[in-house]
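Lab notebook, bench 4. The sequencing result for the construct came back, and we need a structural model before the next group meeting so we can plan mutations. Quick request posted to the team channel:

Model the 3D structure of this chain.
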Amino acid sequence: MIRRQKLYPDKVKAEKRARKQARARLKPKQRIEKLKKENKIWFLFQLDTIVIYRESIKRYILTAVDHGSKFGLSQEV
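Done. Here's the predicted structure in token form:
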């Protein structure tokens, strides 16, 4: 009803949003579920970060795990 009668408060903003949604419908996001997994090294890996506050200093711990080779890496930054 609102679209048919064009009762949006800001028509420029509504038109911009409609164009953006139309573009998004043309090219949907690629999802990881459709990915064909290969057993190559570094083909698919996960990254994670942990933030630790020590003596009023912020520390980051980065972790990475490779699915193909089951290789794990952890680094303090």
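The chain has one domain: 2-76.
Will bring this to the meeting.
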